[in-house]
Design brief:
This protein has helices at about 5-15, 25-50, 65-70. It is mainly α. α1 packs antiparallel against α2 (about 25-50). The longest helix has 27 residues, at about 25-50. The N and C termini lie far apart (about 45 Å).
Amino acid sequence: HELRNPMHAASGFASLLVPRLAEGSRERHFATRIAQSLANAEAVLSSMLTLAAPESLVLETVDVPELVRE
């Protein structure tokens, strides 16, 4: 939440700003780049959170001698 909330706010403002700026203008170019960069940062953050999430354990009974033979 500490990173995502400000990122979503900035992304929303950038997305609202882009259509209001003149086509081909430097300002529109940078607003578009900001929105794209924030989307990329969100993807990286989501990947990191997926890696950090604890895995759920699936417990099962195994036949140890059979497992060793395999």
